[in-house]
Amino acid sequence: MLDAEQKIGLQLTENLAMYPAAAVSGYYFAHPEARYFGLGKIEKTR
To answer: What would the pLDDT profile of 4-45 be if each residue is shown by its tens digit?
Structure first.
């Protein structure tokens, strides 16, 4: 439907895995009241 193989070289294997393996996909939903949260700064450990 998206013609992804021609446009970006993405293929589905016979088991419906995406190739190349680094490919990702997903559904993204947004809501005006949604809020993101932080877990704090990332720091080096010794």
So the answer is: 888 888 888 898 888 888 887 788 888 899 887 787 888 888
User: How far is residue 24's CA from residue 1's CA, in Å, rounded to a whole number?
Assistant: 17
Cβ-Cβ contacts under 8 Å for 23 (sequence gap 6 or more): 10
Answer whether 23's CB lies under 8 Å from 17's CB. no
- φ, ψ for residue 3 (rounded to 5)? 55, 40
Residue whose pair of structure tokens reads 């070289």 in the numeric block? 9
Give 13's contacts (C-beta < 8 A, 6+ positions apart): 19
The Cβ-side half-sphere exposure at 39, using a 13 Å CA radius, reads: 2
